Amino acid sequence: MKNFDDIIKEKLASQEFAFNENAWLRLEKELHAPKSEPSNSFNTSLFAGVAVSSIFAIALSISSLPLSKEKVNDGYQVSQKEINVNESSKKETSTKAIFTPQEEHEIELLVVQQNTGSNKTISEKSTSSKLTTDSEKNVSNAGNTAVSNKNDLSLDESHITIDFVASGIQCEGKAIKFQANESITKGEVEWIIDDLYVLNGKKAEYKFEIPGEHKAQMIYTNSKGEKKEVVKLISIYSNPKIDLNITAESDLSCFNRAVSFSALPSSNAYKWQINGESAGSNAEFERRLKAGWYNIEITSVNEFRCSHTEKVSYEVGEGLSIFTPTGFTPNRADGTNDTWFPVNLDKMASFSVKVIRLVNSEVAFETQELKPWDGTIMNSNERARSGELFVAQIMATDECGKTQKFQQQITIF
Amino acid sequence: MGMWQKHEEMQLVEGCKRESRIAQKELFSKLYGRLLSICMRYSDDRDEAEDILQNGFIKVFKSIDNYKGDGSFEGWVKRIIVNTAIDNYRRKKIRPVVTDTELTDRMGDQLEDELEDESVYEKIPISAVMEAVQKLSPAYKTVFNLYVLEGYNHNEISETLGISVGTSKSNLSKARFNLKKILTPLIERISQE
Lengths: 413, 193
Hints:
The complex is a heterodimer of chains A (413) and B (193).
Chain A: H1 4-13, H2 21-31, H3 52-63, H4 80-86, E1 105-106, E2 110-115, E3 124-125, H5 134-142, E4 164-168, E5 175-180, E6 188-193, E7 197-200, E8 203-207, E9 212-221, E10 227-236, E11 243-248, E12 257-264, E13 269-274, E14 277-278, E15 284-289, E16 292-301, E17 307-316, E18 327-328, E19 350-357, E20 363-367, E21 389-397, E22 403-412
Chain B: H1 3-17, H2 21-42, H3 46-62, H4 73-92, H5 101-114, H6 118-122, H7 126-135, H8 138-149, H9 154-161, H10 165-192
């Protein structure tokens, strides 16, 4: 039976992390002063001949220095920010709408009934509006209907103005704040919204979930139980509906896939974010993205300046990739696997391949053409021996102008 | 290690002795995953672990000429990394926690005896165990790692960390106790499933 220590040890010992290219770049920066690599000569170690104690002294002094946490771009793959902001292949079309969603403002209300003690029925607009669209005017005028006065009371409270104001964002689902006139300091205030929903207090808040005209009724009750009321209409506008379409093109001509983003209706204004980074403000655009999951966020604003945001996750599949064989058998001369060359390099706009003998950093093969390596060491008649290790350094630029560098170990079998 | 791996390792070591950046990268990438895991156990978070690993590898590459091929190369590198982690602990200058040795010794014994439902512990995710170890105080986690993971005895820990054997024992017991305490809610959840 295992004890506690055994189980913890077993678990911790089995953990292994994936290699992080940035960790190597950081270490490389610490280890090497700028110099070209690889070296064609058989240089002996810089430290050969240096006393062991000195080596440790140097190592310890280096290790005690505070190390930079600088994030180094590995140069092999562009960062997310670069993808989102600096993608050169993007094409965009413009829309006329301007992205100016409503901010919280005092709302124009249409008074349809005001029972303030005298026998009168009023129909007028109660506040100025900050909205100026034609649609808004149409909606407001549509509700200009008088309501008869049935509860005319004579209260000895002449200093009180029976009225209220509203503020907020005049869009479906957004909170509208109602506030009784500040002269109402005593008594009870009750609100009836659309003849259905009852709220209490001098301030009330309500979210209208359906666009259109809605009725807001404020009833004031004094200490004697006498009531006065005012009824107003408020217009609530619809939020935009977003017809979102994201498509990754099947054409694999570049490392990164071309992804088309589009939203309808195109008359609305849009703001896009890809993984939290701004990705433009047009109804449709294209980006080249490397494989992986992306969080797409789109906010649309319509003619009423109401906004709606949708968030989706989208997986972009692999684009064109270069496959590098990890070994070959140049010495068997059996017609099989006699040469080595990365697959898909022929689809690149340009490339360079360099094969380096691991043990001495000698360049064994180098080409910028579609010419496979047969195992012969460059500039000599020597052949790579079975069991020898080489490292291929490949730099390839695709048809979209994106460059990738990578390194792959090759074994001679 | 098979003949082939040994052959490959020797070529990498030889390349590193010649300061070949390519060989250094190959070696670093091959050992990174396992050695970062060791550093994580001795640190509070991944940033600190990466620092230990980097400092350790600088020592490895600068002193690789000292490796003469006797014994496992990975073992040699691992020793340097663990020593770097210990140096890191020393630099923090955190006083080792001293508790009642007799009490914590008993506590430790009880804890080992109390571990009856082995299957529940087997179900704990590795990441949760690592997180729990990282939450231990530096003194506890260093002693725990050296004793349980590296196989040091209390005399060796005492010499390495400059603490008494009693402190080493009590820190180990307290580390076990705290580890169990941290893992208890998770163990209870797993037991109920």
